[in-house]
Amino acid sequence: MLDQADHAAMGGVPGLADRALARAIAGEVLRWLVDLDALIDSATRQKLAGDAKARMVLRMMLAQWLRLETPPHAVIGTGLPLLDGGPRRLAHGVFSNLARQKVTLPDVPTLPEAVASRWGERAPAIAAAIARPPPLDLALRDAAETEQWAERLSAIVLAPGHLRLPRGAPVTELAGYKEGAWWVQDFAASLPARLLGPGEGKRALDLCAAPGGKTLQLAAAGWQVTALDLSEKRLSRLRENLTRTGLQAEIVQADALKWTPEEKFDAILLDAPCTATGTCRRHPDVIHRIGPKQIDDVADLQAKLLDRASHWLKPGGRLVYAVCSLEPEEGEHQVVGCMLPADPIKPEELPATVPPTAKGWLRTDPGMLAEQGGMDGFFAARWRAD
Ligand SMILES: C[S@@+](CC[C@H](N)C(=O)[O-])C[C@H]1O[C@@H](n2cnc3c(N)ncnc32)[C@H](O)[C@@H]1O
């Protein structure tokens, strides 16, 4: 969602540096929204409406000063003109008052109450992970070259085939980008495809495949991949990724709720559409945008997709269901509805830093791997057809 808004909003912003700054301000406002609003409310006699333009501009000004370390006079110079013909004096007074008091933000962003109660005891670690944008993770086309690429890119190794670089690295200028030696993929997002093992030329369906991080992984692991997605626009990114990496997959644009395969598969990866709350470090808009209604709607779609996919396996074939969501309704609750025999994940199938749960599922949280910059929240489970 933030990416879509970004695309629409950036139309009138010339220059890469200005766009990066606008994106950084939006990201910081979304991460620290509750705390920024508390500061604004502490300095106004009458509470500003939630959607008042003065509040919006003050949030941006405070985020620039408190998070992006822009000096107050520069913030005033760029922020107040946004309120020309409006409550400019009010905003000036509020900002100057807070700057004089040298207010600060807490170490960890405060989550909206409903979100904190939804995430329960996991909430503090997730909130801490939201405080900073995440580092850059790369999945390698050839895991045997892990050490070599780690050295070339000055990266740390998270697991065979997966590297981490500091955030802000210019992706298209990094060694190996042009020749397609790697693609950008959060470490947690790389785990579900690992659960299908090597392909040895057998057929895999990547259901809900675009923009294709997991298609690339499956193809690189030797699967003969059919990549299906509803969105032609997102599939065009999958095509670009295949071209850049020199990997291959058959691409199908279709609605998985209507499509039926002509032949069954040895493996299916259903990376279902979800609320994506597990990506809150990168997309902090999900903290404010997702609530029970969005969770219910998507859980309904996930159940239908899982049911359909469970009929498309050859005997002995394996199905992995995955979502980048932190919500049990999309993960733990969802999988109990699948009628196939469970195929619990074994510890030796995953990197030691992310062991499976007692039930043999995968559950990651943004608060895991905290020292190295966290990871997306993912859930995955696996079944094997009789
Ligand atoms: C979580 S994303 C997939 C990410 C992808 N697996 C990857 O690793 O890059 C979910 C995808 O489901 C697709 N989708 C949603 N509803 C669908 C449907 N009814 N049939 C097929 N694809 C659908 C969306 O277009 C979106 O690309």
Automatic annotation (TrEMBL):
UniProt entry keywords in alphabetical sequence: Methyltransferase, RNA-binding, S-adenosyl-L-methionine, Transferase
BP GO annotations: regulation of DNA-templated transcription; RNA methylation
Residues annotated to bind S-adenosyl-L-methionine: C208, A209, A210, P211, G212, G213, K214, D229, D255, D271
Molecular function terms from GO: RNA binding; RNA methyltransferase activity
InterPro entries on file: MeTrfase_RsmB-F_NOP2_cat, MeTrfase_RsmB-F_NOP2_dom, NusB-like_sf, NusB_RsmB_TIM44, RCMT, RsmB/NOL1/NOP2-like_CS, SAM-dependent_MTases_sf
Assigned EC number: 2.1.1.176
Top-rank taxon: Bacteria
Ranges for domain SAM-dependent MTase RsmB/NOP-type: 111-386
Keyword Methyltransferase assigned: yes
Active site: C324 (nucleophile)
Family, as annotated: Belongs to the class I-like SAM-binding methyltransferase superfamily. RsmB/NOP family.
Name by which UniProt lists this protein: Ribosomal RNA small subunit methyltransferase B
Species, as recorded: Croceibacterium atlanticum
